[in-house]
Amino acid sequence: MTRKVISAILRKDLVAFSRDRFYVFITVIGLGAFVAMYWLLPSSVDETVRLGVSHTGLDEILTPIAAAENEALAIFEFDNRDELVAAVESGREGIVAGIAFPASFADTAESVELLVPAGLPPEYLPLMEGIATEVAFFAAGEIPSMSIATRTVILGVDRAGDQISLQEQMRPLLAFFVLMMETFALASLVSIEVQLKTVTAVLVTPARTRDFITAKAILGTSLALGEVLLLMVLIRGFVGDLPVLLVALALGALLVTGIGLLAGASGRDFIGVMFLSLSLMIPLMIPAFGALFPGTAAGWIKALPSYGLAEAIVGVTARAESWGDLGPALLGLAAWCVVLLAVGTTVLRRRVQTL
Amino acid sequence: MSTRRAWSIAAREFRLGPRSPLFLYAVFLPIAMSFLISAVFGGLLDPEARLGIVDLGQSEMTLAAQELDGIAVDVVDDAESLRDRVEMHNLDAGIVLAAGFDERVRAGEQPDLDFYISGESLASTRIILAVTATDLIREVAGEEPPVAVSVTPIGDEGYVPIGDRLLPIVVFYAVVIAALFLPAASLLDEREKHTLSAVLVTPTTMREVLLGKGILGVLMGVALGVFSLALNQAFGSRPLEIVLFLLVGSIMMAELGLILGAMVKDANSLYTAIKGAGVFIALPVIFIIWPTLPQWVAKLAPTYYFLTPVYEISVNGGALADFWLEFGVACVLCLVLAPILLAVGNRAETRLAWAG
């Protein structure tokens, strides 16, 4: 009986959702925009500094420098300063700046000119100065008193040449945007039922409050999960350990359903529901946003409900992690799902009972 | 029409407005957008190389490194913490300088020096930090560079950093949310809750209601436009001229907002209309971010005639004298929208009367 009742409420809600122009509109437009945004982002990380150099007779010094730093540094040689200036100005072949050694440099090293275009990241200047002076030292026969290269220790997994691209880093944020849209949709559906008191009409049928809330939770979770799965297909997000990813996305859908129920039960009108949903969702976007930045997340970010979701998406799709690595994060996410679903359903139940 | 009654309506809007979440949203959004832009474009797309130093003997190298432009230097207490932070990629690289490092380098010795690189740091960052560290060691050793290095800037005419090019987004959201959305939502809310019908049975006319709500939108649009520019320190040298364009833009947006608020059926339709038309009214922003696109397309959008002058005056040092045409078009658009607004307002009033 209960199953039939829940199915009936679900059918009614699906019809209501499909008739809601606003949510259908933002769902379609949003999904399209997120997918387009993903494919417009760079799919690889360019780790090479491309410098143009004009010189005469410095091949013996420059060639070993470029060869030693094969991935990090590419040196493009030009016959004269004017050609180098033109290349730097146009950014030809990705050249970011230039070093113009005078023709007499190999014999009498006196001055070097650094050609710096507008917008050059400031840290490139010490690099260029360093290269120019090292070349001068070598030309003068002065070998460095200490070699940094021989004392270098690489800590952690060496990702040189295999960096996580901006596309991969953006996956959790895009998934979260989609989940957020569905939070709005569910919250709006719930709030309309509460404001218009249609829920009281539903409850004079054999349906009980529990059926009503269960139907809403199933609808919210299904919509959120369905859309986020579709997004992941469209952005080729299903790489790595698929079961871990599916569990993480399902937990994410449950998490936002809890929030949707809470916002829908608490908001007084359409704008209030939108604002409340947004206020609850913005802090939850922080871990996904944080995944874009290097380094480990701060303790308070790890404590946020959505941390496990962001960590799992990046971990599985970009770092090839699995249950062992992501277990604690997923457990934390699951615990938050229980808490938020409990809060959401409790608030909604109380609201329904007061009608 | 009584301007006193219109002001009363506006005063009531200001008194009751802050209770609405939309009011808070309008104030919060420019702050959030400014933060987002400075975070993303100040750090994400142009990250500084991060170097950690454990200095066990007060080396001159630490001080010299801290003065470097474009490299964020963090002095760490001990080698173990440094290793942890480098391994977790909280730093790109780290150096441990032993006690007496400077004296030993100057004496031509090879003192202990550990240079840790994070496996997740970019190859380009690694070379920047390695070359910089080598340079700093030479400096400490007293090895004078045998060459004078000069810097020649190339082609910086017309260059605008991406962070500045995104400024119109902040201004756009501030003005559109405050000037267009607030009066539209307020008018619609009054229609839906039938408080507008109650107001209209008093001597207050629909025109006075529209003017009162328009005043709210215009003042909020100008205030939040100014606020968002101040937040981004983007007033340039001609703040009054910027405010003039913000005023005209806010009037235009408030008129559009009131037309929408009087026409749409419900809040869902209002959101749909704004989201649907959003791409069109945001066109100038897109064309400012990508200046190589054909700029005439942006001129099709009404927002072009105040956003572009605001951007050019605040970022590129333009002046009102350069934008008379845009100013004129913006004023004409405001004048054209006024009778449309009055007609739509009259129709809404008639509908309300029939419904009552």
What does this structure look like?
The complex is a heterodimer of chains A (355) and B (356). By secondary structure, chain A is α/β, with parallel strands linked by helices. Chain A has two domains: 2-42 and 163-354, no CATH class; 49-151, D-Maltodextrin-Binding Protein, domain 2 (3-Layer(aba) Sandwich). Helix content of chain A is 65%, strand content 8%. Chain A contains 13 helices and five strands. In chain A, strands 2-1-3-4 form a four-stranded mixed β-sheet, sandwiched between helices. In chain A, β1 (49-54), α3 and β2 form a beta-alpha-beta unit. In chain A, α6 runs antiparallel to α10 (270-290) and α9 (242-266) packs antiparallel against α12. In chain A, 45% of the residues are buried. The model of chain A has no long low-confidence stretch (mean pLDDT 84). With 356 residues, chain B is α/β, with parallel strands linked by helices. Chain B folds into two domains: 3-40 and 161-355, no CATH class; 48-141, Periplasmic binding protein-like II (D-Maltodextrin-Binding Protein, domain 2, 3-Layer(aba) Sandwich). Chain B contains 15 helices and five strands. Chain B has helices at residues 3-16, 21-44, 60-66, 79-87, 101-106, 123-141, 162-165, 167-192, 195-200, 206-231, 239-263, 267-281, 283-289, 304-315, 324-355, and strands spanning 49-55, 71-75, 93-97, 113-118, 148-154. Chain B has a four-stranded mixed β-sheet, sandwiched between helices. In chain B, α3 (60-66) links the parallel β1 (49-55) and β2. In chain B, α1 (3-16) packs across α10 (206-231), α2 packs antiparallel against α8 and α8 (167-192) packs parallel to α11. The longest helix of chain B is centred in the C-terminal third of the chain and has 32 residues, at 324-355. Chain B is elongated and about 95 Å long. Chain B starts with a helix and ends with a helix. At the A-B interface, α2, α4, β4, α5 and β5 of A face α2, α4, β4, α6 and β5 of B. β5 (152-155) of chain A pairs parallel with β4 (113-118) of chain B, so a sheet runs across the interface.
